[in-house]
Structures are given as C-alpha cells and as structure tokens.
Amino acid sequence: MSNTYYDPADLAKFGQIGQHGKALADEFFKYYGMVTGADGALTKREKALIALAVSHSEKCPYCIDAYTTACLEAGANPAQMMEAVHVAAVMKAGVTLVHSVQMQNKLDQLVM
Amino acid sequence: MTVIPLLDERAARPADVSPTIDFDVLLAARGLTLPPLSIGTLQVNITKLCNQVCRHCHVDASPKRTEALSRAGVERCVELLRQHPGITTLDITGGAPELHADFEWLVKEARALGRQVLVRHNLTVTFDAHPQSGAAMTHLPAFFAQQGVEVVSSLPYYQEFFTDAQRGNGVFAKSIQGLQQLNALGYGQPGSGLVLNLVSNPVGPYLPADQAGLQADYQKQLFEQFGVVFNQLFTITNMPINRFALHLRKNGQYAAYMDKLLAAFNPQAAQGVMCRSLISVGDDGTLYDCDFNQQLGLAIQTGAGGGAGGGAGTADSIFNFDHAALLARQIRFGSHCLGCTAGAGSSCGGATA
User: Fold this and answer.
1) A104 in contact with B at a CB cutoff of 8 Å?
2) Do the Cβ atoms of B345 and B269 come closer than 8 Å?
3) Half-sphere exposure at residue B177, Cβ-oriented, CA atoms within 13 angstroms
4) Residues A1-27 pLDDT 10s
5) Reported CATH class of domain A43-112
6) Residue B56 distance to chain A (closest CA, Å)
7) Which of A30, A111, B80, B108 is the most exposed place for a label (fewest CB within 10 A)?
8) A79 contacts in B (CB within 8 Å)?
9) B279 by DSSP, 3-state: which?
C-alpha cells in the first residue's frame, strides 16, 4: 500500500478499474479511445491540449503526466501547452468572478 | 522467456524494473516472420567522428571519435555498387560523414555509377570547421548540389527550444542558416530535382507525432518564419540504446520507455522495418542488419563469409559480401527493435505504417 494518495506507478493500473465492473469499464475505455484516439472534428493535438487544460483545472496529477506526454506525441510544443493551461486558469478565474454578479444582485437586494 | 501481457504484467512489476522482451518470441506470438526482402540500400557508417554531441545519438558520435572506414573499405563499397545493380541507393551516415577524408570521392563514384546517394547531413558541419584538421567545410552545400545528392537532415522541431535541447545550444540557428543555403542552391524547391528531407525525432522518451501532420506544421512554420522549404519530413523514434539509453537509465525512465514501446508494438510497422531491404556497413567493413545493430555490435552472421577480422564464419563484411547468403540470412532482432515497430513505425525513411 502506498504511503501517499497519488503514486505515479498507479497510472499504469488504470486498466484495472474494471476489476469489479468489467462491462462498464470496457464501455468507458472504448468511449475514451473513440474520443481521444483519433482525429475527428478536432485533431488529436487539439483534443490533447483540451485534456491537458482539464487535467489542470481538475487537479489530476495522473492526467497531467499522461497528457503532457500525449501533447508532445501529438506534436504540440511547450508554448501551446502553457497557453492551454492559461485557458484553464482563466476559466477558473472567470467562473469565480462571474459569480460576483450574484453577489452584486444580493447586495442590491440587501442595501436599501 | 515470455512475452508480456501488457497492462497486467506492468501493473505487477515495480516501475523501475525493465520488462523482459524477447523480440523473436514477440514476433512469433503475433504470427510474424520478417525475412529479408532485398538489398536495395547500402548504408555505410563511414565515421563516428562528428562536430556535434547529441543527447539521443545512438552512435555516440562526437568530435573525439576517430573510427573511420579505410580507403580500401571505401573503394570496396564502390566495387559492390558496381557489381550489384540491385543496390540502387547508397546511404552515407556517421557521425558527420562529410568529415571522412574519402567522403567526396565516394559520393562522386557512386553518382557516376548512377546510384541515388543519400547523405545524412547535420546542417551544422558546414559552419563548424573539421574538428580534427580545422579545415573549412563551407563548400559542402555546393558539392551536394553539383553531385545531385539527396540531403537528409535532422531538425527535431521547427522551434529552437526542442532542437537546442537535443542537439546543443545554437544548433537551431545554424541549422536554419544551413537550410537557407541549401534552398538557395535549389534544394527543396519544386522542380529542381534536388531533394531535401528533414528528420524529426522526439526530444525525450516519447513517441513521434503523426508524420503527415507534423510535416504540415514544419512546412508552414519554417516557411513563414524563415522562408525555408523542404520536401518531406521523416519522423523517427529514439532507440533505447547507447547514449539515449544511458540518459534514460540515469533519469530512471528506461523501464517506462521500454513499456511504452512495447505497448505501442504495431505489426504493420514491423512488416516495414528497414532491415528487410538494407545492409549496414561499419567502419571496419563488417556488415549489420541496420545501423542500430551495428552500434550494438550485432554483426550479420550468414556463415558464408570468413569474417571481417579473418575469423572463420564469424561475421560478414564488405570484403566477403555474399549477396545470396545475405538475402537468405536471419535478421538479428533484439529488444531495441521495439523502437522501429512502435506506433507508426520508424526507419531511416520515417514512419513505416
């Protein structure tokens, strides 16, 4: 048993999530492969950059490892990857800030 | 020895322990046999001397290396081309092959025989003086153009960051200058007949990007930023041997890289491996299935020759070149062959699948 919640070696065990629910895991991995594994309306590189951004906003270390590699294997460069992380960051900031409208609405209601 | 059932085995094995891979068993398990198909290319590693010291170099080439094919060996290569018209291509590599004293003679002779001549040219050797003699090498682009040599040059990425990380500080800027010179002579220009191909290999332990997509990026970016044009981009996977393997082991990434290559094994790519249509020549004339086997010392052993060093039946060489025996040989595979069979495949001419 690992002494930390996140162990890099666990990434290789992702396939084992089907141990107690194979049918659902199989469907998930099939879907996962269909979405990320090939060019579609978006290129594999665009999808890898989106996934890298989501990895950061969701704070998933496994995903950051996996999609840093996936971005490089899709031909992306560090500038593009960093910009994707900024998109995630600015969305987080925007999501926080846009809620201030609700605060303002409440303020308008309370300040008579 | 068993071949790995991927995810289960990998999950059970400590992350820092390398997988045990018997490539022949892997092929057999997939029902694959990969006999030689032809000897279309003679690839001569003429010297290990190089003006650069690249992080990924499987040859461990550097300015300190002195190994070089003898004059008699170079002349024998020309004789082989003359004797075997089926060998349509001479692929000259190194090191920086241009640093060999007989390089230009070899090119001229092979071209006079009507052979396609490929030179694996690192672009910077034109600007760096000969590391041993100090002689200027600035005449090379004009020489290539005059001889109609096909130039194949490494440029890991269309930006400085990756290129200099792999090939040394300042290499990107010099490489662009080299490409512009070649372009000015007609290389890569439509209708010129002068072919300029680029090679991209990853800067670390990961697989190359899709060749066609990356070529489109290179063409757009290099033209827009530097006015550079070229014909084709070849993507090549880094081989887990020699200097690159050493770096991987030092960083604790060797096992993970082997796992990655194994997980990406592609039978279609395996069918197209270059060793099926190529013979590699070492700096002492010994024959190998490919340049990687050469650097690992895995010589061809047909049993027909007397051996480069005179030992009976030990190794085949340019001096006892037996075309029929070579075609009937068993190619020597090893775990490093996973580098050529992963993903879209990898060869000196890029992706194979």
Assistant:
1) no
2) yes
3) 11
4) 668 888 888 988 999 999 999 999 999
5) mainly alpha
6) 16
7) A111
8) 159
9) strand
**B33-253+276-331 CATH fold:** TIM Barrel (3.20.20)
Which chain A residues contact residue B207 at CB under 8 A? 73
Instruction: Please give the Cα distance from B116 to B131 (Å, whole number).
Output: 28
Cβ count near B143 (within 10 Å): 16
The angle that helices A22-36 and A44-57 make with each other, rounded to 10 degrees, is 120
| Domain boundaries along the sequence of chain B | 33-253+276-331
Cα gap B68→B65, rounded to integer Å: 9
Q: Which of A12, A69, A77 sits opposite B10 (nearest CB)?
A: A12
Instruction: Kindly report the backbone phi and psi dihedral angles of residue A97, in degrees, each rounded to the nearest multiple of 5, phi listed first.
Output: -70, -35
Query: Strand B196-200 and strand B287-288: pairing?
Result: unpaired
The length of chain B is 353
Residues A89-103, mean pLDDT to the nearest whole number: 97
SS3 A83: helix
- B233, B215 Cβ separation under 8 angstroms: yes
Could you report the predicted ipTM of this complex, rounded to two decimals? 0.81
What pTM, to 2 d.p., does this model score?
A: 0.88
Q: What is the largest CA-CA distance in chain B?
A: 59
